[in-house]
TrEMBL record:
Belongs to the ATP:guanido phosphotransferase family. GO terms for cellular component: extracellular space. Its EC number is 2.7.3.3. The lineage of its organism: Eukaryota, Metazoa, Ecdysozoa, Arthropoda, Hexapoda. One of its GO terms (molecular function) is creatine kinase activity. The keyword Transferase applies. Keywords: ATP-binding, Kinase, Nucleotide-binding, Transferase. One of its GO terms (biological process) is phosphocreatine biosynthetic process. InterPro entries: ATP-guanido_PTrfase, ATP-guanido_PTrfase_AS, ATP-guanido_PTrfase_cat, ATP-guanido_PTrfase_N, ATP-guanido_PTrfase_N_sf, Gln_synth/guanido_kin_cat_dom. Signal peptide: none annotated. This is arginine kinase.
Length: 355
């Protein structure tokens, strides 16, 4: 049973949320009925409904407002997670099943911009969680350390162009820190949304960064997710970037079992990042299309692309450079998610050239 103090916090939080003009998906789907059905439930890791919703209660301006404190939460608190997942992931219903992992034929992709006229850089990332460990809010200091050891010893076994160095955040020298900041590799302690979700405890214990010598392959350990695996390089050669990611993920997977759910795909801390968890993006200059925002948005929505400013969400396009990525991560394969972005960017470049 959930203790009285937690129930009291839940009731107070529920009232605060309902009395607010919050636009979050949490507010939209946490009805009294759902709340009453879930407030006494607990996962085997001891997570309650409060652990899932506290960030959204504290930050009423959240877009989503909910995190999963452990992999089980997606099942135990399904009455709340399912409708939020369906809303965010364009109608991925509770009866739908995410397809099996399929990286597809890497060779069918190519370089989107061989002349380097438009694309500044290309990046593909995915998130993974280690089986048998809860997510951030439930992790103990000892578990953080144990996970860091597993990750760093696994990554030190990588070979070829993936070979590199693991830098723990704990005890990091000022020089290394500055170098990682200059490379845009260093992650900071979580924002207020993650802080409120208790995702930043025992900082910087267990957190670390791995990168290869060419700085085209990067792994974040215990930032928002257990693992963020990232492949990137300058220019538009998506095939090369994607191939590197696929090779790395397959290699890491042989040594570390990942949390996976038959219906939802790969599980991570945030319900916006399930299924393939793949985000393929380019930094791209489209000066003519930038002047015709409506046309840009029209093509983007046709190919399910997300258009952001240069530095990601809620930022401006500096010097006409946009960050454009695939929007869909669930209900389609890894290959299809990346191919959709590939086709969309090819179309945008074609239109830019014709204007």
């Amino acid at each position: 049973m959930v203790d009285a103090a937690t129930i009291e916090k839940l009731e107070a939080g529920f009232s605060k949320l309902q009395g607010s003009d919050s636009k979050s998906l949490l507010k939209k789907y946490l009805t009294r009925e759902v709340f009453d059905a879930l407030k006494n439930k607990k996962t085997s890791f001891g997570s309650t409904l409060l652990d899932c919703i506290q960030s959204g209660i504290e930050n009423l301006d959240s877009g989503v407002g909910i995190y999963a404190p452990d992999a089980e939460s997606y099942t135990v608190f399904a009455d709340l997670f399912d409708p939020i997942i369906e809303d965010y992931h364009n109608g991925f219903k509770k009866t739908d099943k995410h397809p099996a992992k399929n990286w597809g034929d890497v060779e069918t992709l190519g370089n989107l911009d061989p002349g380097s006229e438009f694309i500044v850089s290309t990046r593909v990332r995915c998130g993974r969680s280690m089986e048998g460990y809860p997510f951030n809010p439930c992790l103990t200091e000892a578990q953080y350390k144990e996970m860091e050891d597993k990750v760093s010893s696994t990554l030190s076994g990588l070979e070829g162009e993936l070979k590199g160095t693991f830098y723990p955040l704990t005890g990091m020298s000022k020089e290394t820190q500055q170098q990682l900041i200059d490379d845009h590799f260093l992650f900071k302690e979580g924002d207020r949304f993650l802080q409120a979700a208790n995702a930043c405890r025992f900082w910087p214990t267990g957190r670390g960064i791995y990168h290869n010598e060419n700085k085209t392959f990067l792994v974040w350990c215990n930032e928002e997710d257990h693992l963020r695996i990232i492949s990137m390089q300058m220019g538009g050669d998506l095939k090369q970037v994607y191939k590197r990611l696929v090779t790395a993920v397959n290699d890491i997977e042989k040594r570390i079992p990942f949390s996976h759910n038959d219906r939802l795909g790969f599980l991570t801390f945030c319900p916006t990042n399930l299924g393939t968890t793949v985000r393929a993006s380019v930094h791209i200059k489209l000066p003519k299309l930038a002047a015709d925002k409506a046309k840009l948005e029209e093509v983007a929505s046709k190919y399910h692309l997300q258009v952001r400013g240069t530095r990601g969400e809620h930022t401006e396009a500096e010097g006409g450079v946009y960050d454009i990525s695939n929007k869909r991560r669930m209900g389609l394969t890894e290959y299809d998610a990346v191919k959709e972005m590939y086709d969309g960017i090819a179309e945008l470049i074609k239109i830019e050239k014709s204007l």
